[in-house]
Specification:
Two copies of one chain form a homodimer. By secondary structure, chain A is α+β, with helices and mostly antiparallel strands. Chain A is built from 17 helices and 23 strands. The first copy, chain A, is globular.
Chain lengths: 582, 582
Amino acid sequence: MYRTHSNGELRLANVGQEVTLAGWVQKSRDKGFMIWVDLRDRYGITQLIFDEDRTPKEMVEKAKTLGREFVIQVKGEVIERVSKNKNIPTGEVEILVKELTVLNASLIPPFTIEDETDGGDELRMKYRYLDIRRNPVKNNLIFRSKVAIETRKYLSDQDFIEVETPVLIKSTPEGARDFVVPSRMNEGQFYALPQSPQTFKQLLMVGGMDKYFQIVKCFRDEDLRADRQPEFTQIDCEMAFVEQEDILNTFEGLTRHLLKVVNGVEVAEFPRMTYDEAIKKYGNDKPDIRFGMEFGELNEVAQHKDFGVFNNAELVVGIAVPDGASYTRKEIDKLIEWVKRPQVGALGMVYVKCNEDGSFKSSVDKFYNEEDLAKWAEATGAIPGDLICVLSGVADKVRAQLSALRMELATRLGLRDPKVFAPLWVVDFPLLEWDEESKRYHAMHHPFTSPKPEDMSLLDTDPGKVRANAYDLVLNGNEIGGGSIRIHDKATQALMLGHLGFTPEQAKDQFGFLMNAFEYGAPPHGGIAFGLDRLVAILGGQETIRDFIAFPKNNSGRDVMIDAPSKIDDEQLKELNLKLDL
Amino acid sequence: MYRTHSNGELRLANVGQEVTLAGWVQKSRDKGFMIWVDLRDRYGITQLIFDEDRTPKEMVEKAKTLGREFVIQVKGEVIERVSKNKNIPTGEVEILVKELTVLNASLIPPFTIEDETDGGDELRMKYRYLDIRRNPVKNNLIFRSKVAIETRKYLSDQDFIEVETPVLIKSTPEGARDFVVPSRMNEGQFYALPQSPQTFKQLLMVGGMDKYFQIVKCFRDEDLRADRQPEFTQIDCEMAFVEQEDILNTFEGLTRHLLKVVNGVEVAEFPRMTYDEAIKKYGNDKPDIRFGMEFGELNEVAQHKDFGVFNNAELVVGIAVPDGASYTRKEIDKLIEWVKRPQVGALGMVYVKCNEDGSFKSSVDKFYNEEDLAKWAEATGAIPGDLICVLSGVADKVRAQLSALRMELATRLGLRDPKVFAPLWVVDFPLLEWDEESKRYHAMHHPFTSPKPEDMSLLDTDPGKVRANAYDLVLNGNEIGGGSIRIHDKATQALMLGHLGFTPEQAKDQFGFLMNAFEYGAPPHGGIAFGLDRLVAILGGQETIRDFIAFPKNNSGRDVMIDAPSKIDDEQLKELNLKLDL
């Protein structure tokens, strides 16, 4: 037995006991006649003391040779500390060491194993096993594990069955690019790695499993944007004999449970908002509603004056920035620069200062009088002391621009407290979205989402207007889950695939197995999938998902630590009947 | 809301309530004026009654059109049944239907959805979603889910953290063949799918996670033997600061917990046996110890007589078959045929009948007298009434043959009751095994297993004799888990890789990341991995793992239902810089 206790365990009540501890040398202080060592493991830190009077001489000598991150085992007596450390749970005791064994030495680590490390990102990734020793990363992994446990607990208690679905599946053309896996046993054929277990979970519903979930790895061979991994984890769920309302209630329950047990936060019933409303009010289908700053549309009150920019715009829209009237000219100029950055893309910004005395001062005073501007204030909800920021242009674009500005200002104003949680259901998503590049409609969610029955008639006449039984769960401005009520009959599924540009042959070839299944008594069903990586990061109050993943990949999809992907040898290629075509 | 209750829920106490149910038509009986329908869902069956006197006429008419597996919704009143069915929990009530809605029709299913189905294997696989509706498969999936939940619960309670390790990793040459995944972002390079998260869990130990587990999919691109899947699931575990004893205790605890909560069986402390002893006593490193029939070695008492076959054999070994003395000549001849089948491969079999009167009758009476045969009986533990079966030849082969015979006879004698559980630790496995084909030693477990310190000196002189700190957990003749104490220092790891035929360059190229990690304070550590598929099947009292997998693949690695793997298009190949070389 290497240890009798962990390093987070001993208290005053243990004084007098002989114990064996093991762990890493966090640091040591050598006062000549006395040496203190902080011994660390996952559970905490315990102070060791080597004392010339009370510790065998050779142990003291050996203690002097200990470097940071050496792995040691000590035997000794728990004694009360003279100067207590109130900051750690073991701070009232220390171990008077009688025996010291070095279990493994360590080179000097390339960065400090401290909460605030001196290691840069790349170095920390290369030595990820050292990075994981640091409390922030270690605690993130423990936190992630807890979220997964509590998710499983909640869903199991609700009669959900966790079923494993295959990882080696068939490639389908819809959605993002598939990773493919050549099959040695089936010449010239490939498996794909799943982007989600979508069709399998639907088959489980056809199979009568009634309530399914799985915490499951999924894969997407996309060019990686910042903080997006080629492999990611989903909480994947599906229920039979349900309407949208049943699903929203169930997964509102799950989210509320997680917020309660993981964050200790009680949240009221989640508000709901239609997609159209979210776009209109926040310019965004995943609005952060921790704060207001709702959009005020100004076409009525700002057009038909002499200001051509506005008159020619499809949409004039503004937000009120709390206490923004105090911004200096320079600060406002910087804000204008900010919205004109290519990442945002606005051509300019009009502003109105709402002075404390009720008067207004705007950048377009030439065109608008006080009465006009008072109407702007009313439309944006601005009160004296606020700054109204107004953008104009093509509706879609200007909404996205103003949304970016709204988020940026809220961040600057400290309105995006990661300890505050504001969940929101966004419902009634459009079924289809037009893709300029391919000149056809794509499924906004996926091809299995059902249209709202009352909108079915629009499918032929005005496809873009058809609403879907689809919903997203938004938390603090992030989409953390999305789902839909599915199509469960062959005819509707065939119709939908037709609208997505599939010929009947293609539809049969790709999704025939699912449509066949629908002919044998498929129940009404629907579901949702949560992105676990993002969910964990948000609940954990952090922006980046990478620090909640033990071994993440960098933006080229590379594991910098183990050097994957790598070349495989010619023999393997030959066995797979593949040739490289470089 | 599609239903107020499930079909397994209603009892006499609910009589008088108006309820809404939904589910599948299991069967219907049409008596003209009355129609009974068994309505099924995951939770059970509820009987519906359509009655000309009490049900609206058009509902009765509609009920007459219902076919098997139609999905329906009914509203009605819970009434007490006249003739009660004591076999099902809902058997005291039925629903007097007032409203009937057909939610989805069904074609006639290709096989019956009954516990005993008329569907053959292939058909059931092709329509797996229908097969899952059958109780045996459905209950297996629920059982599997329960084993996973209880595993997670037990390990979490013991402070294990579940950490997800990557699926897209680096290909390594040791072990079985890897599935590979071409990387579009890194030309000419490939990921591999993990055969186990071995190196990652060791890095987590170096990273101080202390206790890790994961229930995780692993992959092996092997030719598939019967009931072996290319993707399989492991309960993967690792602990730091442990000796073998700590690991055995921890995972004996897990197994005991599972047997208790999943099977309701209390098992005494698990016996332990060395690998050598298992081979000697049972001819097998995963002996089924639900029954005796231990091997008796007969070289001493059977050689040096006039029987040349035995005199020339490396090993003469027998087992006592309980009550086998009563076998007829014909039955014994059949047994001899059985051991001579190519799958077993014995050249013949000598037998001795131990008569009830204490006398013996053998097939080699010419060479051995009663006194000789009494010694055979003593060595094999045979008592009057038993049959002694004796094989001879090269030790390895003859042990395997006798082991096969032992298992076959035990099956025939009904000694392998799937409701009886006999776990066993097999310890002290050899570190290396000689491979004739490649003319070199291979790691019996894997290259990270540590040799026993006391055997280290044999590494150069007699490598085959070196024992490892390796152990298997055996349950009813199946290896359900295996693990080892790992090497945790660079020098020993390099030495081991050298013995496995790696040049220092190859060792560095393949496992440099791990050996580097060992230089930064790697703690002593070890672990174990359980094959979840096999474990679940054995706990579930069944032989085949396939029926515990929702969507298994056939022996060609194909998913017969969705037709995977399949061809990918030329554009995808081009993007991956691959050419097919058929």
